[in-house]
Structure formats: C-alpha cells, structure tokens
Predict the structure.
Amino acid sequence: MSQMAGKTCIVTGASSGIGTATALGLAERGADLAIVGRDAARLDVAAERCRNAGAPSVRTYRTDFSVLDEVRALADELLTDLPRIDVLINNAALVLQHRQETPHGYEKDIAVNHLAPYLLNLLLLDRLVASAPARVVNVASDAHTFGPMEPDDYMSTRGYKPMKVYGRSKLANILFTVELARRLEGTGVTANCLHPGLVSTGLGRDNKLGVLFLKLARPFIKSPTDGAETTLLLAGDPVTVSGEYFADGKVHRTKDYAKDPLMAVRLWDDSAQLVGLD
Ligand SMILES: NC(=O)c1ccc[n+]([C@@H]2O[C@H](COP(=O)([O-])OP(=O)(O)OC[C@H]3O[C@@H](n4cnc5c(N)ncnc54)[C@H](OP(=O)(O)O)[C@@H]3O)[C@@H](O)[C@H]2O)c1
C-alpha cells in the first residue's frame, strides 16, 4: 500500500512551483488531496495532474490569501468537506517588487506569507488535533537570515526593501512554527518548517531582479520536484521532532533570532490581534 493512502493532505500554493510538485508527490503516494490556489484555471490543471498521478480524490479551493475573509471562508469549507486533516502544508507565498497593501491595509508579503497561513492554521487546529497523529509543514526560506523581526513595523511602513520584507515574512513562518509546536506538545500533532533550497519556480515573478536572477541561475538550481523533497519527507516519514527548521532532509541550524521563544510568543499574540482572533 502507498505510504500516504488514507491520509488527507492540504497543500496551499499548489497551483505552481514547489506546491504543485508537492501535491504530485503526495498523489503518487496515494493521498487524498485538498489543494488551494488563487487561480481557478491553474488549480484545475494541477488537480488533473494529481488525479493522473494516482490521488484517489482531489478537491480544489480557490482562495486569495491577501483577503482574510476568503481565508476564513476557506477554513469553513475545509472543515465541512474534510472529516479529518492528517497533513497541512502551508506553502503559498509571494515576493513583490514594490510595497502593496491588502484590503485590510496590511503589507501584502506579511499578509499572504504569514497572516493568512497563521489564521488558516488556527481555524483548522481542532480538526488537526482530532486527527492526530497529524502534521503541520510550513515552507519557510533561508531568506529569513536577511534580518531579525521588526515587531514595531510588521507592515514595513518605514521603508520597503523587497527581499528584506520577504525574508521577515519567512522568519515569521519559522517563529510561528516554534510557538505552534510548543502549544501542540502532547497532542500528537507536530509542526516543522523548512527551506526547500533554491528552486526554479515562478516565485518573484513580480520582481524584475528576482526574475533575472532566477533566469541566470536556472541551470544550477533545483527543479520543483527536488525542491519538494523535504516537504514530502516531513509530510510522510516518521518524523517525531517538532518545532524544527529543516533543509535537505535534515534539521538545519538557524539564526538564534529565528528560534527566540519570546519573539515567537509576541508574534503569535500580535498576529492574533491583526487577524481578529482572541
Ligand atoms: N523558489 C525558491 O527558490 C524558494 C526558496 C525558498 C523558499 N521558497 C518557498 O517555497 C514556497 C513555494 O514557492 P515557489 O517557489 O513554488 O513559488 P511559486 O511557483 O510562485 O508558487 C507560489 C504559490 O503560492 C500561490 N500564491 C501566491 N500568492 C497568493 C495569494 N495571494 N493567495 C493564494 N495563493 C497565492 C501561487 O499561486 P499562483 O499559481 O496563482 O501564482 C503559487 O501557487 C514559498 O513558501 C516560498 O517562500 C521558495
């Protein structure tokens, strides 16, 4: 029997890049899939590929993560449709070239890359715990090493350096993982995060320098399939650790500020306020 048969897995950002490769890897292992993306047509193409790759069932959910009400509606739909959630893979993200705001007036990198998955996780948490042993896998990035969190300026109003702002949103993914793992201790649900490596995808398509860099680097960097390997390992293999940062299939050392438990709690509380949760 396939390794993931009978498991229900949610993959966000499954309409392209590493997310599609992750969904395909899970499909090949026999998982039931719920895939999330912001574009219905791209999502349908990914779903068809997953069915052809062997997924017994594939549901699609079109959601724009820059709109928190859409994230709440997504959580409602998932809770209605999925009696259990064995794996939640938070993979969707973007990199911008210029500062943009969401309808709530939040800076878009932090909103899409951190606040949306934070809200989605919290709304799905009881179902994950009820499905234990379950896993949360957060796709972060080594870009978090570009600098520490600036809790007085989550919305980057004091100047916008694209990679620094993206890096802080990925740092938020790691700090969120640290605090989530702490809160989930003893529940049978693990939460880990990872750097997928430098991967040839459309990430940064809105950033001219990013596009140029990826074009030049393409022959030397990972394919999306290779970039999905650590995510698939954390989703499927018997990983018992929790709250860790992985790269190349192993726990990876990171900056002290990415593991700071006080900052992790502060970000958790501030995020709850920003998304309107108690
Ligand atoms: N590529 C790398 O070298 C690299 C390195 C380190 C970390 N990562 C991380 O890997 C993950 C996957 O990125 P990728 O490289 O595969 O990039 P990608 O090909 O651009 O995929 C990103 C996914 O997120 C979705 N997305 C973007 N904005 C969204 C929004 N507002 N609402 C809902 N979904 C949205 C995209 O949807 P569309 O299909 O509609 O665009 C796409 O499915 C990200 O978390 C990224 O930070 C990537």
